[in-house]
Amino acid sequence: MKLAYWMYAGPAHIGTLRVASSFKNVHAIMHAPLGDDYFNVMRSMLERERDFTAATASIVDRHVLARGSQERVVDNILRKDKEEHPDLIILTPTCTSSILQEDLQNFVDRASIISDSDVIFADVDHYQVNEIQAADRTLEQVVRYYLDRCHRQEKLDKFLTDAPSVNIIGIFTLGFHNQHDCRELRRLLRDLDIEINQIIPEGGSVEDLQNLPKAWFNLIPYREVGLMTAMYLNKEYGMPYISTAPMGAVDMAEWIRQIQKNVNILALCSSSKRVDYEPYIDGQTRFVSQAAWFSRSIDCQNLTGKETVVFGDATHAASITKILVREMGIRVSCAGTYCKHDAEWFKEQIQGFCDEILITDDHSEVGDMIAHMEPSAIFGTQMERHIGKRLDIPCGVISAPVHIQNFPLGYRPFLGYEGTNQIADLIYNSFALGMEDHLLDIFGGHDTKEIISKSLSTDISLIWNPESRLELSKIPRFAREKVERNTEKFARQKGIET
Amino acid sequence: MSVKIDETLTVECETGNYHTFCPISCVSWLYQKIEDSFFLVVGTKTCGYFLQNALGVMIFAEPRYAMAELEEGDISAQLNDYEGLKKLCIRIKKDRDPSVIIWIGTCTTEIIKMDLEGMAPKLEWEIGIPILVARANGLDYAFTQGEDTVLAAIAHRCPEPEFSVRERKETIQKFFTFHSRKKEELVEYANHPSLVLFGSLPSNVASQLNLELKRQSIKVSGWLPAQKYIDLPSLGDGVYVCGVNPFLSRTATTLIRREKCELIIAPFPIGPDGTRAWIEKICSVLGVETQGLEEREERIWESLKDYLDLVCGKSVFFMGDNLLEVSLARFLIRCGMIVHEIGIPYMDKRYQAAELSLLQDTCIKMCVPIPRIVEKPDNSNQIRRIRE
Asked: Which of A138, B104, B176, B180 is 20–30 Å from A15 (CA)?
């Protein structure tokens, strides 16, 4: 038992639901008590999704507790099958229902005999894995299910496409800037003359999964989710994959070079030409992305040597650390991640880029570390943003967990060359706005003129008795004066004196 | 399964799959209302993540709420849960020093049959802070019923009449000012039995209700919950209680049975019509004559005229999640809207009896058909019905 105020990653079933609702025409059924299905609300609230989310709950109540689910789960599955005709139904338990230890796999087997749709049981242990790991596993499970089945039925078409093509694995609903990143990746691949075979799971269809092996290789933009699937495809079908995150100018170049290598190897066997992307990399880095030029400018030179702290998921925290140090000359006193299961990779990536490394999922440790380091800026999650507010240190948000701010209506990718611009803006603004406040403090205030009396007329002063003063004090401070004035105005109009 | 009340009001139960929030959501408003409380939710990551998203920004202000997150060792009963809770409560006492710690039981604690009620008194005795247990779990309750279970638990701690918790501390002080205070009070209020209101409302709304009753010369002895735990009202034989929220049936039952209070069943003070009926009922039970209620209600309706023009003639369908639906439907019908259906997770017919009959009367008065009430509705069926 531990005292928890805040968690960085959600519970496992949220990961599974994210995979299910990213695919088209897939329905998720949660075996859960009332109230565990807040996922629907999260999607409409944060992602601003217009339609109903395809996730329903098969309610666990006292009857279920006493007598077991019996027919209820199977009935619910069959009902959804008839009502919505999804391609696939995924049954997932939640923390509560997994304690009940009902044989949900059995229900799934029974239902799949009768239903038209495929039915899978999402096999994740709710007490061992968190949201991110569950998403990774469920995606792999779904891909594996369809590919294995096709393979058994010997319907698998393993011939590669004629022209170079890739799969992008790991774009999700409720992911941090995922939709924008996806658009940016499409643009990049178009520039490189590479076709996109499939993007999973967001917007993908399970019927098309059998075509995954036709692509030349796989791209995994965020290693937290998608890596398991890539490793499976690599093992079973020999598909190479690139798991470098195309974030920041240096890693972008590296990413494109890896793509080049993969394309050229396979070009030998197909009728495609070899490619050389060096001129493209050069052009983009020097002219299209403003970040590289900006980092040489005097504005940015001001930031050289300033200290920062970085914290977030493994992909973003590592990439931002490298960008700060390599591309902008800013010091990173401490970098950390809450992805404890990926600690080794993380440490290896940022070795030499920062003074200290912190691997933890306890936000108070992160808070203590920041208070101790006293950096000029923080780059972290929403939690770090609030730690920054408390300690008066500016903060830019670079990773999930997410908040409504992280689903902007405008176009804001973190990946690609446009991403380098966005990141540079974020970093610069975080520092600059912080400095503005300090300057104003040093040079004496935000408003140099005395505020002349705001009252309408001061000849009749009104009497506020203790009871009404008490009522007034219940109003939040920022509105209090206004309310006081309006009340007095109303009283004067009515000729009341106390 | 359908039950008929009178010929025209039908209540059905669909036992379907519907969406509502978990009852632990009540923590998000109760911890703000009771200023010296601390809420400890004993549950899993799912519960914690939900509250994190529900409380949003507030969670960063380190509010008087925390999760006691159960891990695998706790679930399989390998670790001693008493010791675990004790450690957490000692820390809470050190960090926040609340007047009361309220343990909120969740689905998980229900399933693993964690004996919270057994452990609480023992721990209370050890660390010296009152500990209450409220089982707000999604297996039995929905959304606002969380508040119901918490208030029912708090009701047990209300003192007997004559001595309130605060008064015990201030008796000596009061003695000297006794005479002059009494005289003032007699002038403003009629002589009537003690009245306590229950239900959690923001304090300015509660003040408004107090003032409305004051206009009728009725003094409210206290509220459950009070702004501070130490200010709990006295309850007991001869005290009249009246609820302000429609979902407080368990609290009402506790007050009648355990505390032996008299319950005033009135429609709820939602909307000018509801508020007037509420005041009227209270006055009639307490033997006080009402003054000027009709004009007051008329004036409020006047001030709403612009909004009424907007909604008049439009229709609404309640899918149901917060148990306030019957009162809201009644108000909207009075505003001139048509209500097709009222979905509601659970309705206690006795506690809401006055509200239901006011609903019927309002429908007859506004010449609209009485909507059907569906308990535990099924969302897909409802969507189908909406389309039809």
From this structure: B104
